[in-house]
UniProtKB/TrEMBL annotation:
Residues 30-99 form the CDCP1 first CUB domain. The keyword Transmembrane applies. Keywords: Disulfide bond, Membrane, Signal, Transmembrane, Transmembrane helix. This is CUB domain containing protein 1. Residues 776-836 are annotated as: Disordered. Residues 345-432 form the CDCP1 fourth CUB domain. The gene is CDCP1.
Amino acid sequence: MAGLNCGVTVALLGVLLLGVERLPRGAEAFEIALPRGSGITVLIKLGTLPVPMKPCYIVISKRQVPMLSIKSGERQVFTFSCQNPENHFVIEIEKKIDCMSGPCPFGEVQLQPATSVLPTLNRTFIWEVTAHKSIGLELQFSVPRLRQIGPGESCPDGVTHSISGRLDATVVRIGTFCGNGTVSRIKMQEGVKMALHLPWFHPRNISGFSIANRSSIKRLCIIESVFEGEGSATLMSANYPEGFPEDELMTWQFVVPPHLRASVSFLNYNLSNCERKEERVEYYIPGSTTNPEVFRLEDKQPGNMAGNFNLSLQGCDQDAQSPGILRLRFQVLVQHPQNESNKVYVVDLSNERGMSLTIEPRPVKHGRRFVPGCFVCLESRTCSTNLTLTPGSKHRISFLCDDLTRLWMNAENTISCRDHWYCHRKSYPLQVPGDILQLPVQLHDFSWKLLVPKDRLSLVLVPAQKLQQHTHERPCNTSFSYLVASAVPSQDLYFGSFCPGGSIEQIQVKQNISVTLRTFAPNFRQEVSRQGLTVSFIPYFKEEGIFTVTPDTKSKVYLRTPNWDRGLPSLTSVSWNISVPPDQVACLTFSKERTSVVCQTGRAFMIIQEQRTRAEEIFSLEEEVLPKPSFHRHSFWVNISNCSPASGKQLDLLFWVTLTPKTVDLTVTVIAVVGGGAFLLFALGLIICCVRKKKKKTNKGPAVGIYNGNINTQMPRQLKTYQKGRKDDDSHVYAVIDDTMVYGHLLQDSGGSFLQPEVDAYRPFQGAMGDCPPSPPPVCSRAPTLKLTTDEPPPCLAPESESEPYTFSHPSNGDVSNRNTDVPLLDTQEPVEPAE
Ligand SMILES: *[C@@H]1O[C@H](CO)[C@@H](O)[C@H](O)[C@H]1NC(C)=O
Ligand SMILES: *[C@@H]1O[C@H](CO)[C@@H](O)[C@H](O)[C@H]1NC(C)=O
Ligand SMILES: *[C@@H]1O[C@H](CO)[C@@H](O)[C@H](O)[C@H]1NC(C)=O
Ligand SMILES: *[C@@H]1O[C@H](CO)[C@@H](O)[C@H](O)[C@H]1NC(C)=O
Ligand SMILES: *[C@@H]1O[C@H](CO)[C@@H](O)[C@H](O)[C@H]1NC(C)=O
Ligand SMILES: *[C@@H]1O[C@H](CO)[C@@H](O)[C@H](O)[C@H]1NC(C)=O
Ligand SMILES: *[C@@H]1O[C@H](CO)[C@@H](O)[C@H](O)[C@H]1NC(C)=O
Ligand SMILES: *[C@@H]1O[C@H](CO)[C@@H](O)[C@H](O)[C@H]1NC(C)=O
Ligand SMILES: *[C@@H]1O[C@H](CO)[C@@H](O)[C@H](O)[C@H]1NC(C)=O
Ligand SMILES: *[C@@H]1O[C@H](CO)[C@@H](O)[C@H](O)[C@H]1NC(C)=O
Ligand SMILES: *[C@@H]1O[C@H](CO)[C@@H](O)[C@H](O)[C@H]1NC(C)=O
Ligand SMILES: *[C@@H]1O[C@H](CO)[C@@H](O)[C@H](O)[C@H]1NC(C)=O
């Protein structure tokens, strides 16, 4: 204890004495002693004198010298001959660190000798480390970090760091740096030379850096910059403004806080004349799927990058005759994201059990063109390009993205019923939650998976606003649609796409489905109130789907079979319950004359059944023509059952329904317009037709078979034979229709738009797709079979022909009302017979 106190006292005394000695400036004596083996050399020499001055000398033992060199193991005492030696002399202290022949002294680097024993001259401390080629040397700078300056620039406080490396025998300048920057580490290999210049007036007495050994970096150097907040850094290629060493690689790494964005811009560059390879820069950018991102120097460089990234400059093999120079000076700008708020959005899924939300990049083809990162951040900390929020918790998210339209979100919610006793008749709203709608990202899909116990329950979807089926003829123009598809893995069944603003009141489906709300336009937000479906669990039924359609008087309702483009799945039945208001007549029209289905097994057929009368017409969809436009005064069913079709010969049907007021008396109209002649023709047509019809009836066998719900892939045999007979008569049927069509334009003129000819049904008229076609003679457009159970007029009859007598075949299968309505048109368990 006593010894230590004593030492301190002596030191203090020494300082005091020194202070006294220094009073006559220039006259003070300095002693520099360099320990043997320290590897240090001190050189005091004349600096760059700005203005000619009175000469000054170093005085050693009364000898005046212009320069003094002290080697390790030596000791010198000297004074200066002038009062202000700092204006004349500079001192260089060079320390060689040899890592080749022994262990390297890594760690904090000291200023040796301490600045306190040195004359107050401009000092340059130089450390020269030589190491094996395979050893990476890393200079670590404590805060403040370094800022690179270009040629001709100087540091405000005069403290500069000049760093160079070595490539075999040649020195490569890495750069000159001031304090107060972003450069935190510089890694090199083979050797490094660091010169710290401290002006004589600067009080700094520490080196401010340490050296560590690292494994090989396999390139010229790596410079790391760390940004703590917003800021910028200007950096240069090695040797700048001279040329970058031939065929070398240099990397800059950037550490950027997650909530900020970085942009790179090239301030100056030059390219050399490459003989082989190409000069380029390569980036590793978080979130990029195409890393490394390769750019030419002349390209626009990436911007708005979130997260840490690195940038490498790769030289080429230069032309020996005229190498040119490769050089680069660039700036990295780190700032807050410009075009998005720092808003935090809360998505509360804590009360959800089956719902998850994914925010992900929209699939866009950019090729290899770089686009800046676009990130979603959870709790403002972890940012990623693709974020999935899981049910059961509350999530706080924010966005780091220059353009949020590059993202979209997809959500899925599973509503599953395990206990059919419990779920029966229960309802759930299918609505996109507000937490999701508030996010500044477009909702792409919101999918509900609706799962029910097999063969126990079915589902009914009731929309808040009646739905329209998307068809080519009447596409949906809303900003969103519901896509309804089977969710039974083995089943490829897509019911269709439906949007609000139509006539479909409900959709019943047999089993597990997915309902996907898909948006098509950003204005979904404005239309969001139109969304809304309610799903209820209802008793099981066997059709794949039942559509309840209530047409309104204003527009045509287009409907088409599920799986439109690929054809109705084999052995599938679908029904449409089409309501006709009491004061209206519905006209049902099929888009084509025949289906193209060819059955491999089973039969494809369609039943049109008047609901009130239960009168039904059965059509074989395989060989028969589809019904001509027909009128229905009461609600009716269109039930379609598919066979197992031959590949490429699928069943697809498009039909439409229009309503016209019942009060319009067609006969009166016809008479009024075309007069008795037309009526005569018309009546003639009817007569011919009815005669034919009668004839036909006599030709064929007994009543057409009843559709039996339980054995349905097998059409009643009689239908087939009857069908053949009828085919022969088709020409007559058409003749009559053509006659009618002759007057079609007249009917239209007088009777109003509802009488416009229908393009698809009547080839001779290529008019616009209008309303209902002119009423064809009812009997002629009649389907082959018709079954009436009451004295109701036949469904095809136009109002004026209500009382017309005619005969029709009808089945005698007893009481239709006993039929089990839950039975499908098809029973797939039933063995099916191949079609002939
Ligand atoms: C010492 O350094 C300062 C600033 O770095 C410079 O202006 C001055 O000329 C230097 N002095 C000599 C003698 O080189
Ligand atoms: C360091 O940066 C701060 C803020 O940018 C500035 O106020 C200060 O003058 C700078 N110091 C030096 C030595 O460059
Ligand atoms: C550097 O100077 C500060 C005072 O300015 C002093 O506290 C510190 O001990 C000195 N460090 C060295 C290594 O001399
Ligand atoms: C650093 O040097 C020490 C001994 O000098 C050696 O054991 C160690 O492996 C080196 N580390 C690296 C990364 O080269
Ligand atoms: C370097 O490129 C600039 C344009 O970026 C050009 O003006 C200049 O002449 C080039 N210098 C050399 C030495 O090639
Ligand atoms: C650049 O970044 C990528 C990805 O983070 C990393 O794999 C690679 O090692 C980095 N390269 C350098 C030289 O830092
Ligand atoms: C921000 O958005 C506006 C308009 O959308 C655009 O003009 C501007 O360039 C954007 N700014 C940035 C930094 O992306
Ligand atoms: C996002 O993540 C989800 C879930 O991991 C994955 O299904 C989806 O394909 C990913 N999207 C992209 C664009 O990588
Ligand atoms: C529907 O999903 C439920 C629950 O996953 C499953 O038990 C049932 O078998 C599925 N129904 C069909 C027809 O696959
Ligand atoms: C969509 O079509 C309906 C008629 O089909 C029309 O009334 C409505 O204005 C259209 N809406 C838009 C946004 O085009
Ligand atoms: C058919 O639709 C009408 C009108 O929506 C409805 O009243 C009737 O119950 C439906 N019939 C069946 C069997 O679903
Ligand atoms: C048509 O389908 C509905 C619903 O599946 C059913 O109630 C009706 O009985 C079927 N009609 C005929 C004639 O099969």
